[in-house]
Amino acid sequence: MSQLQEQNDLQNLKERVQRVLDEAAKRNASSAEAVISMDSGLSVTARMGEIETLEHHKDNNIAVNVYFGQCKGSASSSDLSDKAIQETVSAACNIARFTAGDPYAGLADRALMAFDYENLDLDHPWSLSAEQAIEQAIHCEDAARKSPEISNSEGASVSTLRGASIYGNSHGFIGGYYATRHSLSCAVIGSHNGSMQRDYWYSSSRDSKTLDSAESVGQRAAERTLRRLGARKLSTRHIPVIFEADVARGLISHFVNAVSGGALYRKATFLLDALGDQVFPEYISIREQPHILGALGSAPFDNEGVATREREIVKGGVLEGYFLSSYSARKLGMQTTGNAGGVRNLTVTNGELDRTGLLKQMHTGLMVTELIGHGVNTVTGDYSRGASGFWVENGEIQYPIEEITIAANLKDMFMNIVAVANDVDTRGNIRTGSILIEKMTIGGE
Fold first, then answer.
1. Each residue of 315-341: pLDDT tens digit?
2. Which of 122, 157, 116, 113 is nearest to 39 (CA)?
């Protein structure tokens, strides 16, 4: 597709968003907002050397919110025709007329709109044919199955997605852009002396050129699986714990949930009224960086058209900001932080240690590589999860561990972070290295 054609397509979508807003105005709505999204892609899965699935997908969607004063109505459709737009707006208006008013409902403030936003280099189409995708998926799985101890496979997948999303509202703001996301993944099963284990690996990026190779993804999946064979259990004890980088993301996401608008205005968080408090050690800072070029979490504006901006959430261990949409901000008597739709490139500062250095600093303890279950209470901060990983002595991995639980309170866990390694995982909206926590309770035999 030529650049001119892409610009014309974006302009066409913007015009359709404007039609939604015009239609809402005709029906005497006091304000309205709409988002139109279009995406297309290809995904292939190969298992045991054969193609298991091949999917071409193409989706369109329009979602409309209208306001009559502070009464809100919402409707959506997968049809973008003029007639469907009229029907969708009509449905939203009918719902709004029978909805009780909410004093906190409405558009985000006009002054916060991203009327002038920059190109963040999010669009990198991958001209991948079905045949090429099949070849890569098979090659990825073949690389994983080279070891005789890999006895089975859950398959290797290749996917590419490109889409455009246009948001507009009655403030006169209409913005949108193309963005891509590509991935390679593989999951295999290993067996040895009656023991069976499963693990996986994946690579994800806006730009296919920066993906790990199919061979390296397969090899990494096999290595992760084989290192888990012969897993043992532990007795109950209190020891230091490392959360490997891709698992540590989940730990930071619990912090995000605890200081997000919904939990705060419902008073359902262990970090209620913690703004200005020390919640991490002083050497920990957490910054939101929504404008990193080409990053998976980047966006010039949030789901309400509010301009995103770089800001400190935690500085010197002190909580300096929340994650708020316009609705939750009004409920709290504050201003939106541009986080309607979530966080964007939330980055935890790291030190000079790599993961090997972090193991040596821990000396003896547990490195967690997988968590099971959802035993997290955001109201109290109580944390208890099933886990597997590796026992470490003298800074060296000794043997794999399974069928244990790890438990503590999140408030204590955050304050007892000893170090963050520089092995930063950038495959999502939260970017952090492996995290060492001074002590947790291990439940075992």
1. 999 999 999 999 999 999 999 999 999
2. 122
pLDDT tens digits, one per residue of 161-189: 999 999 999 999 999 999 999 999 999 99
CA distance 388 to 385: 10
Which tens digits make up the pLDDT trace of 263-278?
A: 999 999 999 999 999 9
**Residues contacting residue 368 through CB under 8 Å, at least 6 positions apart:** 241, 242, 243, 244, 247, 387, 388, 389, 406
Which amino acid, one-letter code, is at 161? L
Cβ atoms 333, 420 nearer than 8 A: no
Max CA distance (Å), the chain: 73
Surface-to-core class of residue 352, CB atoms within 10 Å of its CB (0-12 exposed, 13-18 middle, 19+ buried)? exposed
pLDDT for res 4: 53
270-to-124, 228, 286, 332, 377 alpha-carbon distances in Å: 41, 35, 19, 17, 9
Burial of residue 29, with CB atoms counted within 10 A of its CB: 0-12 exposed, 13-18 middle, 19 or more buried: buried
- Between CA 396 and CA 400, with CA 399 as vertex, the angle to 5 degrees is 120
- Residues 197, 225 contacting (CB under 8 angstroms): yes
pTM of the model: 0.94
Contacts of residue 8, defined as CB under 8 A and 6 or more positions apart, other chains included, come to none
- Edge-to-edge order in the sheet of strand 346-348: 318-319, 311-315, 286-288, 346-348, 430-431
pLDDT at 5: 62
How far apart are the C-alpha atoms of 245 and 19, rounded to whole Å? 46
